[in-house]
Amino acid sequence: MDFAASFLGSRSRRAVLLAAILVAGLAAGAYAYYVSMPSPITVGPNVSITSPPLQLSIGLDKTEYVTTDNLTLYFSLRNISNKTVTVTKTFASTLGIEPLVPAFTLTTGTEGVSTPGGPNDARGFQFGFNWFDSNGTVVQHQPNLILKMIYDILLEPNGCLNQTLYISITDFYGISGQPPQTGAFQIQGSLPGVMVDGVGPITLETPGIAFTIN
Fold first, then answer.
1. Which whole-number Å values give the CA distances from 179 to 38, 88, 100, 172, 182, in the listed order?
2. pLDDT, tens digit, for every residue of 18-38?
3. Which is deepest, 117, 119, 130, 176, by most CB within 10 Å?
4. How far apart are CA 137 and CA 129, in angstroms?
5. What is the reported pTM?
6. Helical pair 11-36 and 2-9, crossing angle rounded to 10 deg
7. Residue 158, Ramachandran bin (φ over 0: left; ψ between -120 and 50: alpha; else beta)
């Protein structure tokens, strides 16, 4: 008791104790903020393109597949700025999707994302992709998957829209009307024709990720 009173009685010691408490509080707050952030793409290879205030990313679960596998694509759109950003689709299209629907399974997750005045979720706001063979020939160009309406997506600072797309290689038909042959390919993420805070339309496309089908 005497030791505590003596320790706390010193102005310099009280300042040291207060500083230690403050540092601990800041560290706890930083950790809480970090763990609350949307999880980045961490499975397999991934690439991103940054066009402030947005960052578009695409990833694969692996780089080698067989024809009976699912090709798993991970997409994310993140607001990297410190203010809320409004992203608006500028066109609606179901081009080429109808015969491909059985090949696709899609899941959506959001953090810090809202859709005021539109659907109560973000599933209508879907990412596109470009799939090329080793000669650079387009296997499939899918600018939008099942987009049927135009509405705003609001992303808060560090808000992130994540989607996972499972493509059945066996059931998937490319532009040629045939399933992809075995070989080497590249795939890139695409977000075409969007308005950002009323400016645009702009198109975001990531670098390609190489993969093979055996």
1. 34, 33, 11, 6, 9
2. 444 444 444 444 333 333 344
3. 130
4. 14
5. 0.73
6. 90
7. left
pLDDT one-digit tens code per residue, 149-201: 677 889 999 999 998 888 888 887 777 777 778 899 999 999 888 889 999 88
Please give the Cα distance from 99 to 103 (Å, whole number): 9
DSSP 9-28: HSHHHHHHHHHHHHHHHHHH
Cα distance between residue 134 and residue 132, in whole Å: 7
Q: Which residues contact 86 (CB under 8 A, 6 or more apart)?
A: 152, 153, 154, 155, 195, 196, 197, 198
pLDDT at 130 over 80: yes
Going from the C-alpha of 17 to that of each of 10, 21, 23, the distances in angstroms are: 11, 6, 10
> What are the residues facing 57 on neighbouring strands?
48, 76
Element (H, E) at 50: strand 46-51
Residues 162/38, Cβ–Cβ less than 8 Å: yes
Q: Is the pLDDT of residue 146 over 90?
A: no
